[in-house]
Amino acid sequence: MVYNFAKNFGIKNAPTWCPGCGNFAIQAATKNALVSEGFNPHNTVFVFDVGCSGNGADKIEANTVHGLHGRAISLAAGAAIANPKMKIIASSGDGATFSEGPGHLIHAIRNNYPMVFMLHNNENYGLTTGQASALTPKGAKMNASPDGVYLEPINALQFVLSLNPSFVARTFSGDIPHMTAIFKEAIKHDGFAFVEILQTCPTYNKVTPEAWYKERVKKIEELKDYDSSDIWAARKLAEDMEKDIYLGIFYKDSSRENFLKMIPNRKSATTTLIEEVKSYDVKAFL
Ligand SMILES: Cc1ncc(C[n+]2csc(CCOP(=O)(O)OP(=O)(O)O)c2C)c(N)n1
Ligand code: SF4
């Protein structure tokens, strides 16, 4: 068989994820969405964080950066500002996003950087063997918290929705067609598209395994009269993380301008920063 990497973003490196890990399905859906939206490895940049999700960095054929823990958003924002002709996709775990790097998330939302951000929420620090993150459910017995986590978890979507975002969605690693559809919408959004993925981690997350989610997830599109331009409706819907867990586009505001269209010294630019920098000799800085 002729291997067409430009078509499917595939690569031959063997995966290192545990059997049943949600990262397999997330990466498959990401490739599906990009291919069906007409992207290829040459016009796509992936920024991976440190963590199990980050170990996807050498499993996908594209321009990939594997950054420091909690810093994927800042690297991706730099890429998005420097070259808006590229599709920028950043991925991080819940530990990276809500413990090591929440400051980056806050300012990426405020600045509406043109990029997709995928939160791989497996409710724990997977790569370092199952410690609690800020999103681990209260009471869960984790490595380094053998008596159970004593703090309430942060509700990721409520946090993001409190910051006046332009796109907020949730999907589930047990449903590839749903992930693909949501990723396609996120890719098309012209601004900071935040996507929470409820990611199964059969090795360390025993509290909310795949079957637990499958009994609880519901689709927003089945809600009659749901208005995804109503941020208060979105905040209300995001409250429940125990019983009715909704998947879909919670909130979208396409009228918000992205960072590059907003700031005075870039909004009428006809060239990109990576084109402009070519006229300077930067050797001394390197
Ligand atoms: C600044 C920093 N703090 C801590 C670590 C150690 N570390 C590496 S991976 C990891 C956990 C990753 O958890 P998460 O971000 O949730 O991703 P997952 O592995 O679950 O996908 C930690 C604590 C690090 N590499 N850098
Ligand atoms: S520890 Fe969890 S998140 Fe990490 S590879 Fe294994 S199943 Fe996946």
Describe the structure.
This protein has 286 residues and is α/β, with parallel strands linked by helices. The protein has a single domain (15-285), classed as 3-Layer(aba) Sandwich (Rossmann fold). Helices cover 31% and strands 16% of the residues. The protein is built from eleven helices and eight strands. It has helices at residues 5-8, 22-36, 72-82, 94-100, 102-111, 156-161, 176-188, 210-216, 231-237, 259-262, 273-276; strands at 44-48, 63-66, 87-93, 115-121, 167-172, 192-198, 217-219, 245-252. The chain has an eight-stranded mixed sheet, with helices on both faces. Strand 5, helix 7 (176-188) and strand 6 form a beta-alpha-beta unit. Helix 2 crosses helix 7. The protein is globular. It binds thiamine diphosphate and iron/sulfur cluster (SF4). Residues 50-53, 69-70, 93-96, 100, 120, 122, 124-128, 133 line the site of thiamine diphosphate (TPP).
